[in-house]
Design goal:
Blueprint lengths: L1 H12 L8 H5 L16 E11 L12 E11 L12 E3 L9 E3 H5 L7 E2 L9 E7 L10 H9 L3 E5 L17 H23 L10 E11 L1 H11 L32 E5 L8 H4 L6 E6 L1 H7 L1 H4 L6 H8 L5 E6 L10 H10 L5 H11 L5 H19 L12 H7 L3 E4 L8 H4 L4 E4 L9 E4 L15
Parallel strand pairs: 1-5, 6-7, 6-8, 8-9, 9-10, 10-11
Antiparallel strand pairs: 1-2, 2-7, 3-4, 11-12, 13-14
Helix pairs in contact: 4-13, 5-6, 11-12
């Protein structure tokens, strides 16, 4: 399995998986358009912070409030980086510090982009901000690929670690049950956003003036995708789907509504857990949205045999519900759920740091690294996120051509792109309350129907239950 991943890195370095077309983008008429499938024009700075939300129960942390570690990547002028600029330090345990730190070069050897420790932000500031929530059991270091790549294209990216998620690998930290995970995720993101915006206005702070407060998006992988959707549309009752997470008796304090955060202007869920929201709740999402996830055939092969035919439309479901404009669906072929994180690279890091034994390492690599090669999956996921956010969060021209079915059909062998799932403006209600319409594949006009709120539970996969 190690050979498979190493070969993928070698081929990616040789450009074998380069499916981007900068010349076509430049032909669209933009003056400065950079290939979103490759590192952008900026060097990447990094800083990590530990926030404490004193208004929430600290749980098992022993701290006077809920700890929220945050990774922040930001653009840096390339001319400001010299041979003496230190590489980024990525703490694995941002609360207690009991796990060893990693550095940028540890991850660069596995194909991820380089970052530097707290250099001065680019003079081109301010920049749009992406707030990102990992999946259940996934800390911030599951998403270094997204943070570094988007920062190189002119975004500030803040990835939150949700305390109580790392108990599957760190024995000194608990693993929160599903109702607690659902409750805390959007609240952690909103609290972190408030702090980042405060630092944005604080003289002398590293992040002073780096963020455009009117251009804030939310993203997330898996249960983090649920957080992004909830931040845009709200959740009427956190506990109304916790049976999907194996919770039969949720803690009463988690069984409340989560309101949307009006500061969120767009969302980009990656293989997001939309089954934790009712279709009618998803339909309240009226900001621009783009879901990136597993392709229809992969769901048919991996999910349907276990849960039934209705789950083939898992990622189409949210797309059919979203009421914002635009709403896009990007299916990536030959992927698994972990393809939209840095799980494969994490296996190598944990083994190299002595945190897992060789047998566990070999098993995890077999699970995490044998679908679409991770460098390809990362490039495609970040590419579409960059094009979408540049166009529909920041209003930049020149990237819209990527966000079309025609581009995918002619230039992206691993992508199926859908601009709409609706037959007409009223189709969201045509078959209420039971069914929605979606397109199984690109291209063509074939349509199918699926239940808006499936009756067969689909458990939320997480990193601790491989």
């Amino acid at each position: 399995m190690v050979v498979v991943f190493a070969a993928a890195l070698l081929l990616a370095g040789q450009g074998v998986f380069d499916v981007t077309h900068t010349s076509a983008l430049q032909a669209a008429g933009a003056s400065k358009v950079y290939d979103p499938g490759q590192p952008g024009p900026y060097a990447v700075g990094f800083a990590s912070y530990l926030l404490i939300d004193e208004a929430r129960d600290p749980g098992w942390s022993g701290l006077a409030g809920r700890p929220i570690p945050v990774y922040v990547w930001y653009p840096v002028d390339a001319t400001a980086v010299t041979a003496s600029t230190p590489e980024a330090i990525y703490p694995l345990d941002g609360v207690s510090g009991l796990a060893p730190d990693t550095v940028s070069s540890d991850w660069e050897h596995l194909g991820l982009d380089r970052a530097y420790q707290t250099p001065t932000p680019s003079a081109g500031k301010p920049f749009p901000l992406l707030m990102f929530s990992p999946g259940w059991g996934g800390p911030a270091w599951f998403h270094i690929s997204v943070g570094t790549r988007l920062a190189s294209h002119g975004f500030v990216v803040a990835v939150v670690t949700h305390y109580g998620d790392a108990g599957w690998i760190f024995p000194w930290e608990p693993f929160d049950p599903g109702d607690v995970a659902l409750y805390n995720r959007p609240r952690d993101v909103s609290y972190s956003l408030t702090q980042l915006l405060a630092w944005n206005d604080t003289p002398g702070h590293l992040l002073r003036g780096t963020i455009r407060p009117e251009e804030v998006a939310a993203g997330g992988w898996s249960l983090g995708g649920y957080a992004a959707m909830t931040l845009a549309g709200g959740d009427d009752d956190v506990c109304d789907h916790v049976e999907l997470l194996g919770v039969s008796e949720p803690q009463p304090w988690t069984c409340v509504a989560t309101p949307p955060d009006p500061r969120i202007k767009a969302i980009v869920p990656f293989d997001g857990s939309n089954q934790c929201l009712y279709f009618s709740e998803l339909a309240r999402i009226r900001v621009p949205a783009m879901g990136v996830g597993e392709e229809w055939s992969a769901l048919e092969q991996n999910i349907v045999p276990v849960l039934g035919p209705e789950w083939v439309a898992w990622q189409a479901r949210q797309h059919a519900a979203f009421a914002g404009h635009p709403a896009y669906r990007v299916d990536v072929a030959n992927t698994i759920h972990g393809s939209f994180s840095d799980m494969c690279e994490t296996d190598y890091i944990l083994y190299g740091k002595g945190l897992i034994d060789e047998a566990t390492f070999e098993q995890w690599v077999e699970w995490d690294c044998t679908s679409l090669p991770p460098p390809v999956a990362h490039d495609l996921t970040s590419k579409y996120a960059i094009a979408f956010l540049k166009t529909h969060l920041s209003g930049e021209s020149g990237y819209q051509s990527i966000l079309t079915p025609g581009w995918a059909l002619t230039k992206e062998p691993f992508i199926e792109f859908f601009a709409t799932e609706r037959r007409n403006a009223n189709s969201i209600d045509d078959d209420w309350p039971d069914l929605f319409v979606y397109f199984p594949h690109q291209s063509g006009s074939e349509k199918a129907k699926a239940q808006k709120d499936p009756t067969t539970p689909m458990p939320v996969w997480h990193a601790g239950r491989r």
